[in-house]
Task: inverse folding
């Protein structure tokens, strides 16, 4: 069973792992800046957690299997970032989406 909750600083390493795996295949076809802005790193995740609302999907084991960040840029403009799902969970979700 999955749970969705607001992320905390304690979730940083799980969020980074969740972001890196699904997007790795796009590293070579992205600019360095675009890839770094999506996947993040230890020195940029704290800023994301401060500036945006970040949510995580966790399994009963508390493993983070999905994440999304969103925030208001200016009046009537929002920004959504990084919406990965761990590949195995993605495959399971597709099988059950009938």
Result:
């Amino acid at each position: 069973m999955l749970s969705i909750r607001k992320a905390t600083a304690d979730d940083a390493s799980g969020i980074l792992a969740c972001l890196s795996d699904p997007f790795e295949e796009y590293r070579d076809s992205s600019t360095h800046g675009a890839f770094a802005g999506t996947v993040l790193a230890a020195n940029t995740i704290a800023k994301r957690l401060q500036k945006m609302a970040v949510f995580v999907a966790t399994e009963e084991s508390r493993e983070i299997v999905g994440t999304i960040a969103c925030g208001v840029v200016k009046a009537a403009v929002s920004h959504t970032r990084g919406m990965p799902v761990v590949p195995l969970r993605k495959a399971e979700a597709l099988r059950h989406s009938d």
Notes: DSSP finds four helices and four strands in the chain. The first helix runs from residue 12 to 23. The domain at 3-95 is CATH 3.40.630.30 (Aminopeptidase).
